[in-house]
Amino acid sequence: MSIINLFDTTLRDGEQSPGVNLNKLEKLEIAKQLERLGMDRIEAGFPASSKGDFQAVKEIADTIKNTSVTALARTVKSDIDTAWEALKGADEPRIHIFLATSPIHMTYKLKKTPEEVITTATDMVAYAKQTFSQVQWSAEDASRSDWEFLAQIIKKVIDAGATVINLPDTVGYTTPKEYGEMFHYIRMNVPNIEKAVLSCHCHNDLGMAVANSIAAVENGATQIEGTINGIGERAGNASLEEIAVALKIRSDFYPYQTNLKLDEIKRTSDMVAKLTGMHIQANKAIVGRNAFAHESGIHQDGVLKHASTYEIITPELVGVQANTLFLGKHSGRHAFKDKLKELGMRVTEDNMKQAFEAFKRLTDHKKEVTDDDIFTIVTEIQTNTATVDKYTLEMFQLQYGSNNIPTAAVELKTPSGKKVKTACTAQGSVEALYKTLESLTEEKTRLIDYQINSVGGGKDALAESRVQLTVNGETVNGRGSAQDVMEASVQAYLNAVNRYIIQQVNAEKKEVVKTQ
Question: Where is this region: Regulatory domain (predicted)?
Fold first, then answer.
């Protein structure tokens, strides 16, 4: 069995999904979970794009030790220098440099001749090689490039020091047959190709990203790039969890395997969905809510008689477990701490204290506390940014019923410390709540999207709410969790407004630094 390395770009390409904006703490939590999952490479971000991304990449590089950390850079010296500053604390820092090679990109975007593109690519790879032992070079829009030109530039960037060659299907245009043949051609026509690893990176615009990735592997690629849940620009990227499970289940056909701990897939998927606000469709392969559900009577009968009649993947394989009681009202701090270790969650003593207090509050109302509940509680605390003054909920009250006009009363503490309160009516309870919150916050807000989900099952399950708002014209995501659906909805709304405030404070700090 050949090992296929998986290169996760959830924190870079995945974050480019419309409406997704992860802060440093959220990126770090996802990176730690990707490390637990057994990911070979983590592309932590694009350090030159912003100060925030630089700090997030640096924090991840300094923290993650069992997975190689990578950063993206343009073929520009300043980008490469910035990437090194962010990554130099990593155990195995890697850089990912890209430059377009298709005629349409070279002509209309780069406005460079093919000869100029070759010179730029080789010069910058050689420059990066002075500090990075591992240099990945990507031929952006490779699937629409001239193969003869690709072979020519690949030979030269390998001579310049590239250790990984990535041939992306940047716009999701290719088919498995075409993509596989391109990799075969490169292997046959680049004389020094054995000095580099071949990598594939597929987008899902035509729904073929996973199939294209596997076709590349069948033709010599030993690294697959993608994201958790397939998130990313436009229709997203290849879903790494789908690829890993496909290679496992069809090991009779594919002589390849990955290093992923498959039973961490569901938890990783849930964390990415929670922190990005990118909801997983119910029928999504491997991780969707219906992936192991059987509605048809014939299917149910078959599964009850023998699971393999209609179930090719066991839920346990990907970490879908029965949510049984593990801790309760009388469980102590030591048992709680042991559970966090079992879940693989590393927390500070202060966060551990907060999480335990939140757990004890939950046990006052919820008899059966599950792993998913604990994971949600700890993730919320780990990703909470409390470095600036924000809006906090003091009290809310709702009155609604089939014969009543929904009325919401809310009291908030503002960032300045002042307490404000008011009440509003509307056609529905959530509308009344959000109308009241809108009137209490100084920022101009507009609700774009609202979602509510449960963590696990049962009538006493934790509720998770996700919202997308425009705050003073900027799109911001927010999330909140509570046992009460309406409280979760309030917390999600305030979380979005507070994230906007934090962004503004950080922007002001950067301006102060610039003027000094």
Answer: 392-516
Cα-based distances in Å from 306 to 248, 302, 482: 21, 6, 39
Q: Which tokens is 181 given?
A: 């043949």
The tens digit of pLDDT for each residue in 306-337 reads: 566 667 898 899 998 754 445 666 778 888 88
Distance of CA 134 to the CA centre of its chain: 24
Under 8 Å between Cβ of 38 and 254: no
d(C-alpha 333, C-alpha 148), whole Å: 64
Q: What pTM value is reported for the model?
A: 0.86
Binding residues, as ranges, are 13, 201, 203, 237
- Lateral strand order in the sheet of 474-482: 445-455, 462-471, 474-482
User: Residues at the annotated binding site for Mn(2+)?
Assistant: 13, 201, 203, 237
Q: Are 154 and 139 in contact (CB under 8 A)?
A: yes
DSSP letters, 404-422, are EEEEEEEEEE-TTS-EEEE
Across residues 152-165, what is the average pLDDT?
A: 98
CA 124, 126, 127, 132 torsion-angle sign: positive
φ/ψ bin of 458: left (φ > 0), alpha (ψ from -120 to 50), beta (otherwise): left
Q: What is the pLDDT of residue 348?
A: 87
